[in-house]
Amino acid sequence: MSRKAFTVEEAEALLPGLEALLDRMRAEVAASDGRREQLQVLELIWGEYLRDPANPDHAEFVQHQEAIRIAAIHLETLIADELHARGIRFPAGGLDPGLLDFPTTWQGRWIYLCWRSGETRITAWHEVDAGFAGRQPLTADQARRVGREDDPALVDDSMLDF
Length: 162
Hints:
alpha+beta, four-stranded antiparallel beta sheet, 3 helices, 4 strands
């Protein structure tokens, strides 16, 4: 399967919408965290009796559980539809710092243009196996050439992890 190789311009054009998407996702996680805290309080008060339908707080318990389940499905859908479907990599643990990677080609290999929430431009990249710790500054020459010089269909994409 051939992947899309982003140019810097293509990736940067998406940044405002992606920033807003990450904000929405963070808000959903925060709401779920609040519900988890409420569940902990209820479990502390009632213990196993909380799961008994006769418990006066059982309905609240079920509502919190269902809301958390729905939020998790919604987040998974957003990641699949808004990120992965566009070819954007969302690394594990990337929501809090707002990390996104845009696959591109450089000198016959795949690399990631690396963006962190709050940055107004793409200014870094890393090898596909290096992660955020391996970020390197994106030079002006690279910014002009990434994603343009190599045919993505001819570059081995087995290292990309989606």
